[in-house]
Design a protein that fits this description.
It is a single chain. This protein is an all-alpha fold and 68 residues long. The chain folds into two domains: 37 residues; 30 residues. It is built from four helices and no strands. The longest helix is centred in the C-terminal third of the chain and has 27 residues. The chain is rod-shaped. The protein starts with a helix and ends with a helix. The relative contact order is 0.09. This is Transposase insF.
């Protein structure tokens, strides 16, 4: 994908020049780049659930160790 190429080579070339050479709109690149680095609602929910389960498991293990 052209946007991935631009992302990987930002340190070497200007975004403006790469967009021109690859014939992509800079506005499209910036929208893609911004979305790529945002997590969606499902990913946020999954992270919250993972943390809740991790804490519950840790609490349960701590309780078992204290009673042993």
């Amino acid at each position: 994908m052209k946007y991935v190429f631009i992302e990987k080579h930002q340190a070497e070339f200007s975004t403006k020049a790469m967009c021109r050479v690859l014939q992509v709109a800079r506005s499209g690149w910036y929208v893609w780049h911004q979305r790529r680095h945002q997590i969606n609602q499902r990913q946020q929910f999954r992270l919250i659930c993972d943390n809740v389960v991790r804490e519950a498991f840790s609490d349960a293990n701590s309780a078992m160790v204290r009673h042993a």
